[in-house]
Amino acid sequence: MTSIKNLYDVAVIGGGPVSSQVAYKLAGMGYHAIVLEKKEKLTGPVCCTGIVSRECIGTFSIPDSVIHRWVNSARLFSPIAKSLHVWRDAPQAAILNRPAFNAFWANRAQSAGVEYRIASEVRSIKQSKKTALVDVVHRGEHLTVQARVVVLATGFGSWLVDGLGLKGAGDFVMGAQAEVETNNIDEVEVYFGSKIAPSFFAWLVPTVKGKALVGLLSRRNPPAYLRSLLARLVAEGKIISGDIPFTYGGVPLRPLPKTYGDRMLVVGTTAGQVKPLTGGGIYFGLLCADIAANTLNRCLSIDDLSADKLASYQRSWKRRLGRELRTGYWARRVFEKLGDRRLDHLFGLMESSGLIDELRQAEELSFDWHADVVSRIFNHRLLIKVFRSMKLPFHLEERLRKGLKT
Ligand SMILES: Cc1cc2nc3c(=O)[nH]c(=O)nc-3n(C[C@H](O)[C@H](O)[C@H](O)COP(=O)(O)OP(=O)(O)OC[C@H]3O[C@@H](n4cnc5c(N)ncnc54)[C@H](O)[C@@H]3O)c2cc1C
After folding, report:
1. Do the domain assignments include residue 55?
2. Domain residue limits at 204
């Protein structure tokens, strides 16, 4: 076992965008940070569609060089027979080139002084009174990295969370995605239905000329549903071939109950800082990365990295995102109970009642912030009848009433 001599201020586990953001911010505050990534390179394929809002692009100054394209409209297909066209004049979202974005974010952190170690899988973390000891396997060799504090940003399904005695997120969906060649598809398409993506949705997202990402998130068997969606899209003449390799991933639907401990914070998808209605985790993860860096700055400067002191991180990110995550989760549970027929009916009502136009023009319709729009949908005089007909369990109705109205 080799020990890396330095004592780092911060060891960040994982080389994704959230890790790079935390490390970059801390380096800018004068701290010595190391990022440990298990993959052999930072530019490999990522199971992610890379859609983020214009707000995210602006807030984090994400450069054009990592953006495939901007999007201002989408066509939504109901399970049986309806479709809705949603659009706005100005672009609402951008599709990132995910591997390029990861690499850019890591290069930026490296230029600010962060050290990166690739091919370095963290196996365990032990906190002591004075430091945290990180056990790393680098190409068969065991190394120990010492840091004053550890940030865990290892993405979905990290068993390190259990090793640290933190309970997992508890609810999640799995996904699969493939890059396909298209026949001039120029608009994002989203497909709903129990035969397409049970409990979630599927998508066709054009990226660069002649290419698109087709994927889905689901509670059951994503590869089987993706194979069947690809065959359907080939038959419809939208894509050229359905015989392509898939990438796989997962998305937590609820945050970890506890995202801090002695000499440790958990950030990004590992912490469950993901929009439950869409599975988008980049923007919320980056926002929480900044909150984590600010908390760490305060705690490192007074050299108090106890769980008690670091607890303020969880209070801060909950203040920013708590209502969104709670509302999104309970709205998702209702969505899952709708069933294909009711969902089809809702599509029709949204069109005929003019709600879709109302929402299109509503200030609160946002790509990222769903609580207000969910509230408007659940309180709409026509749609409320549909939700009542569902005879939702009392606790769910109660939570919706409270969660959605506050
Ligand atoms: C099918 C699918 C589509 C998605 N589409 C979107 C989308 O369009 N928009 C959006 O905002 N979000 C999307 N997401 C979610 C998004 O991909 C994640 O929220 C985002 O990548 C989170 O970033 P992160 O840095 O927290 O984790 P990640 O990007 O997952 O990075 C974690 C890193 O940690 C490394 N790692 C893991 N364990 C260890 C270890 N023990 N030691 C060292 N390194 C380790 C991993 O190799 C990885 O590089 C999608 C997810 C899926 C599954």
Report:
1. no
2. 172-251
Tell the residue nearest (CA) to atom 27 of ligand 1: 155
Q: Which amino acid is at 192?
A: F
Q: Are residues 210 and 166 in the same domain?
A: no
With a 6 A CB cut-off, is 13 part of the ligand 1 pocket?
yes
Residue 173, CA distances (Å) to 53, 128, 187, 284, 346 in order: 22, 35, 25, 18, 24
| Beta carbon of 269 within 6 Å of any ligand 1 atom | yes
CA of 168 to the centre of ligand 1 (A): 16
- Is residue 108 located within the same domain as residue 31? yes
Residue pLDDT, tens place only, 340-394: 999 998 888 888 888 788 777 776 677 888 777 777 777 777 777 777 777 777 6
Note whether 122 and 164 are same-domain residues: yes
Q: To test ligand 1's pocket by mutation, which of 34, 69, 150, 251 has the most ligand atoms within 8 angstroms of CB? A: 251
Evaluate whether residue 317 is within a structural domain. yes
pLDDT of residue 169: 66
CA distance 312 to 328: 23
Q: Is the CB of 153 under 6 A from ligand 1?
A: yes
Residue of 191 and 373 predicted with greater confidence: 191
Q: What is the mean pLDDT of residues 275-283?
A: 96
pTM: 0.95
Which of 202, 230, 251 terminates a domain? The answer is 251
d(C-alpha 181, C-alpha 228), whole Å: 17
Does any ligand 1 atom lie closer than 6 A to the CB of residue 377? no
**Structural domains of the chain, count:** 3
